Amino acid sequence: MNIVKVVKAGFQIEHCRSNCPKTAKNWQNLFDTLIINLTTLKLDQSLEEKFKPVIYHNIPKICLAGCPNGCSHPNIKDFGISGYVTPQITDVPCIGCNECVRSCVEKAITRNEGGIVIDDSRCISCGDCQRVCPSGKLIAGERGWTLRVGGRVGRHPKFAEFAGQAQTDEEVLLWVSKTLLRYIENGRPKERLTHYLER
Question: C or N terminus of the chain, fewer CB within 10 Å?
Fold first, then answer.
């Protein structure tokens, strides 16, 4: 993942590169709308009142990734948002090429006499199998966002915790905005967002 960092008044957003062939869900519209919505919250003013002065560690950080293909950045930010696309098995005959089996890094796909089998406990919904299937036996199913919260680096590093999934950009926007508003209203003086989220 090639990271692009955007620092705005009171928050920071990172995103992956545009036009990546691994993208499971397009992040550009969500990115643009997040910037608009978060700017209206005037986080810079709220943070200035809480910290005086505001330093880098005090600024809420968001990472927006188009796929779940192993990037660590969504796991070490206050908000980690990763696109996913679940594979869907169709009625189209399988031609037995095994491209999907070879493409799956997670070893979630096998083929037996009955056809293709996907182990949901292993599948991370990255979309690799759908991209290589020449017959249309595997196609893109549900698309959405995996949400993580509470990651950080520094003195006491911590991976973000799974917070759920969202199918729409609107659900993601609401989740981020509501969480930040609760932090502004209920966070203690000089309390970083990641520490507030642990409480």
Answer: C
